[in-house]
Design a protein that fits this description.
Elements lengths: L2 H60 L3 H15 L2 H28 L1 H9 L5 H26 L3 H26 L4 H22 L9 H7 L1 H32 L1 H35 L4 H28 L1 H8 L8 H26 L3 H54 L5 H20 L5 H27 L1 H16 L1
Helix pairs in contact: 1-3, 1-5, 1-6, 1-9, 1-10, 1-11, 2-3, 2-5, 2-9, 2-10, 3-5, 3-8, 4-5, 5-7, 6-7, 9-10, 9-14, 10-11, 10-13, 11-13, 11-15, 11-16, 13-14, 13-15, 15-16, 16-17
Length: about 500
């Protein structure tokens, strides 16, 4: 088997594994959103998202990006074969996370009165926000453990931790929302954070990582590299979270908390759907890329393989969602949320652009280019906020869907120019052709949704979906040879059982 085919298969395996996990998480999240929608309504959904995002922003502010930056350092040492040094970095990371998590919890607790007044024009949520400060600590500790599993390429453990966390989060939160309604928002967020920490810690222990005693002085001395890169990633993540936060505040000011709920729910669908592919990039593609970041040719081929797989897996699902958007929304949520249909449909087109641009963007992170990463991220986030504000101002929720598409188009062009000039990165002609075909299928499906005759509309959409699925399968089969791929997979499982 050729090296290129092995790389395509590796990318496909990871994407399939975490895509499958993410699919189950989408179903679970959909049920959870359905529960919140039924028991809390749009206003309750808005409160839930405002509080949840408050925890997220605080976490971004205080985490110093350690969970993301550690992946690069641990992966590099494991790829080079120096496991002892990698284990030492892991211990340094765990020490730093306790410090950063505690700082984040204190920041949120002390700023609770101000945040409550800012979000709700009263102090009614002060104690709720103080309780949520614990979630900041729990999330940081859990994220660190997930990063370690990711760096060590313990993909099965990582997938199980993510999946079980979602399942238990739903099992516990559903009765809380049923009995407590809006009073259950804070307990539900806290329990989800505790569950993720316990599960990630359990699977980390199963990895049997040797422990070393490292003093506080050694922790900071040996963690300088992680902290430097982490601060850059943290600052950029903070900007991303803040721009999303500011947009929610803007929507809340112009349209009210119900509009925030509709917007948040619509983009939750886009994020979760895109997560089928983007989860694989974060969990497997990033550490693989970090391990070979010094080799330009290998980086280019690895990025192209990932972008190719992401594009061909995502396109049929985008077409399917466009065809059945009203049905999906009513199934996942309720008839109260049908107003987000057009917004989400526009956003679906943007996901294809995002799958390609994200593949390229990881080059900058994997190479540890902190200054360039900060410059590009801050610039694009400011642009994103500007475009989204204009979109909502002129077009409401539909305008936000259009602005999502417009921004991702600009971002795709911008990140390609940056990676080409800085790293001489480029895609093959074959990839450009496939990208245009996939985009054309999606645009055609979008256009067909405006046909008034239901029979004609769904007949044509069914044909487009079948053609799209056949095309994507054919292209994937050329690279993977599915028959031998499946046979190899079955043989491996059989040998493992024996």
């Amino acid at each position: 088997m050729s090296r290129e085919k092995k790389q395509y298969r590796q990318a496909f395996k990871a994407t399939s594994l975490f895509g499958g996990v993410q699919f189950v998480q989408i179903v679970i999240s959909a049920i959870k959103s359905k529960v919140i929608a039924l028991f809390l309504g749009p206003s309750g959904m808005g409160i839930y998202n405002l509080l949840r995002n408050t925890v997220e922003v605080t976490g971004k502010l205080s985490s110093f990006g350690l969970s993301a930056s550690s992946v690069k350092f641990i992966s590099e040492e494991f790829t080079s074969g120096d496991e002892q040094k990698a284990y030492r970095i892991i211990q340094v990371l765990q020490n730093l996370l306790w410090i950063s998590g505690s700082i984040g919890a204190l920041i949120l607790a002390f700023s609770a009165p101000f945040i409550s007044q800012l979000l709700f024009d009263s102090n009614a949520y002060t104690y709720s926000i103080i309780w949520l400060s614990l979630a900041v600590l729990f999330h940081q500790l859990a994220d660190g453990r997930v990063s370690i599993l990711q760096s060590l390429r313990k993909l099965q453990y990582l997938a199980k931790a993510n999946l079980l966390g979602s399942i238990w989060g739903l099992v516990v939160s559903a009765p809380i929302f049923y009995f407590l309604r809006e009073e259950g928002i804070v307990p539900a967020i806290l329990i989800a954070a505790i569950t993720n920490l316990l599960l990630s810690n359990y699977f980390l222990r199963k990895s049997k990582i040797p422990k070393e005693k490292i003093t506080k002085k050694e922790t900071f001395q040996e963690g300088v590299g992680m902290l430097k890169l982490g601060l850059a990633l943290s600052f950029s993540s903070l900007i991303s979270a803040l721009t999303a936060y500011l947009l929610q505040l803007y929507i809340n000011d112009l349209g009210g908390v119900a509009q925030v709920g509709l917007y948040s729910t619509g983009f939750l669908i886009l994020d979760r759907y895109g997560g089928l592919i983007f989860s694989a990039m974060a969990k497997d593609f990033y550490p693989r890329l970090a391990g070979i970041s010094k080799f330009r040719s290998r980086v280019r081929h690895t990025v192209q393989h990932q972008a190719f797989i992401a594009l061909l897996l995502m396109t049929p699902f985008v077409v399917l969602f466009l065809a059945l958007a009203p049905q999906f929304i009513q199934l996942l949520l309720s008839s109260e949320f049908i107003g987000i249909k057009t917004m989400v449909s526009w956003g679906m087109l943007g996901l294809l652009l995002k799958a390609t641009s994200w593949s390229m963007a990881y080059i900058i992170i994997a190479k540890g280019e902190t200054k360039l990463y900060i410059q590009t991220n801050v610039s694009f986030r400011i642009l994103e906020l500007t475009v989204n504000i204009l979109g909502y101002y002129f077009g409401g929720l539909v305008g936000l869907g259009i602005s999502f598409l417009v921004y991702n188009f600009i971002y795709l062009i911008g990140i390609y120019i940056i990676t080409y000039k800085k790293y001489l990165f480029y895609f093959s002609k074959e990839f450009y052709l496939i990208f245009l075909v996939c985009l054309s299928f999606s645009i055609l499906a979008f256009g067909l949704t405006y046909i008034e005759s239901a029979v004609l509309k769904y007949s044509l959409l069914a044909i487009v979906f079948l053609i799209t699925s056949w095309f994507c399968y054919h292209q994937l089969n050329n690279k993977l040879e599915f028959k031998s791929f499946v046979q190899d997979f079955m043989d491996k499982r059989k040998s493992n059982k024996e």
